[in-house]
Specification:
- It holds the Pfam family Sugar_tr.
- This protein is mainly alpha-helical and 462 residues long.
- The protein folds into two domains: 183 residues, Up-down Bundle (Growth Hormone, Chain: A); 198 residues, Growth Hormone, Chain: A (Up-down Bundle).
- 77% of the residues lie in helices and 0% in strands.
- It contains 21 helices and no strands.
- The protein is globular.
Length: 462
């Protein structure tokens, strides 16, 4: 039934977004790269001629990505605003090619810093362009499903690097990864610019053809009344935006804008201060320090696979269950799982004999990532365009994406230092407390946006 539904109406949207997500999956590889590689770089067997890296250098390896992400979010927001989303997407491949080249030829930690910075530039492009691209081309009935694909592809990259990073030679991984941006460029080049961007440039005929492409309508004679209504709404929406005055401070002071900005900042803060991104970055180190008796290399792959299972769960039910309930379940579950992980670490630290419970840290970590994947890690990327006023949608996404990278820098930089100074239990208990506070905010302040029409000025006009 699902395949029939997919093939008849929506398959081109899925295919287009799958092509776009080649760079997303490649970015996922760079997100997870430190997890198996930092333990190697810190060991006597380090591939760097300059010698093993220190704890401080390892924290910079993790966090330099976030500096690049902050700059990349702003840079690619400017590019897609003036040149369109297709050009912006294609340009995300440039820093990606540079980063793997630097890792391939680098002989000291500074090359890795540069590579991680370039990885952040690509990530900034993914954060700032991909959600808006999805919002532009997706049918509102499956927008949440398509939005969930972003984190799925990131985690496909994680599974690859968690497995390959422990078994492939250090210099073979960049050689493999240099293939992905080439494939990305070839496939995305065949996709049309989004209808929204084309209408903004006054290219009406091309915009209609673009929407026909993404709605799988081969010829004008097959246009339905639903298609005509959607295109008319989009034209009216773009026309209204073009005739509006430029964005000014007063636009940010309306109740709708304040609520949208608050929600954007909140979900991005939860995304990072829940600790999930830092845990993905340092999963190998956390497993080593947690006292698990399971081979950390095997545990990393199992954790990443369960993470994808969470993504697939969200993918399957997000447009039926709704954003709010999934975010609430995710924050609650992650908070409890981190509390359990911290309790195990604390009891181990004070000398309790936990023989027979060595599996518990792996289970807690897997549940953290699984439950995070059904809400915390994916919903922020597509809920922001849904809660922002249309006039502020692009700049609101840029602000939220920039803050996401800044929050990520703080958590990724501090996590390894905190794990040394206040142990794993103190570190993850802080993140668990963040989730507890988030649960209250979600219950009382976060609206449901399932099925919201983005091509009208307000819900009242639907």
């Amino acid at each position: 039934m699902f395949l029939e539904f997919l093939s008849r109406r929506y398959w081109k949207q899925f295919a287009a977004i799958a092509a776009v997500h080649i760079i997303t999956a490649s970015y996922g590889v760079t997100v997870g790269w430190p997890a198996p590689i930092i333990p190697l770089l810190r060991s006597p067997e380090t591939p760097l001629p300059s010698g093993p890296v220190t704890v401080d250098e390892a924290s910079w390896i993790g966090s330099t990505l976030c500096i690049g992400g902050t700059i990349g979010t702003i840079l690619f927001a400017i590019i897609h605003t003036y040149f369109g989303k297709k050009i912006a997407l294609l340009l995300t491949s440039v820093p990606h090619i540079i980063l793997w080249t630097l890792i391939l030829v680098g002989d000291n930690v500074w090359y890795i810093y540069g590579a991680r910075f370039c990885s952040g530039l690509t990530g900034g492009g993914v954060v700032s362009v991909v959600p808006l691209y999805i919002a532009d081309i997706a049918d509102k009935k499956i927008r949440g499903t398509l939005g969930s694909l972003t984190i799925i592809f990131i985690n496909i990259g994680l599974v690859f690097i968690y497995a390959a990073g422990n078994y492939l030679p250090y210099d073979l991984i960049p050689k493999i990864m240099l293939v992905s941006p080439v494939a990305f460029i070839v496939l995305v080049s065949f996709l049309p610019e989004t209808p929204y961007c084309l209408l903004k440039k006054g290219r009406l005929i091309e915009a209609e053809r673009s929407l026909m492409f993404y709605r799988n309508i081969s010829d004008q004679q097959y246009q339905t009344a639903e298609f005509t209504t959607e295109f008319d709404e989009l034209k009216s929406f773009v026309h209204t935006q073009s005739t509006q005055s430029r964005i000014c401070w007063a636009d940010f002071t309306t109740p709708e804008a304040k609520r949208g900005l608050f929600i954007g900042v909140f979900v991005m803060a939860l995304n990072q201060f829940s600790g999930i991104f830092a845990i993905l970055t340092y999963a190998g180190t956390i497993l080593q320090m947690s006292g698990t008796g399971i081979d950390p290399n095997v545990a990393l792959v199992l954790v990443a696979i369960l993470n994808i299972c969470g993504n697939l769960t969200s993918f399957a039910i997000i447009d039926r269950a709704g954003r709010k309930i999934m975010l609430l379940l995710s924050a609650t579950g992650v908070g409890l799982a981190l509390a359990v992980l911290g309790a195990h670490s604390y009891l181990l630290t004070i000398g309790y004999d936990l023989q027979g419970a060595e599996w518990l840290p792996v289970l807690a970590l897997a549940l953290t990532l699984f439950l995070g994947a059904i809400g915390i890690t994916n919903i922020p990327f597509f809920i922001v365009p849904e809660v922002m006023p249309p006039k502020l949608r692009s700049i609101g996404s840029t602000i939220s994406g920039t803050l996401l990278c800044m929050f990520a820098f703080v958590t990724v930089k501090l996590y390894p230092i905190m794990m040394v100074n206040i142990h794993i239990y103190g570190t993850v208990w802080i993140s668990s407390g963040v989730c507890a506070i988030a649960v209250v905010i979600i219950i009382f302040l976060i609206p449901e946006t399932k099925g919201k029409n983005l091509n009208v000025q307000s819900d009242s006009k639907k």
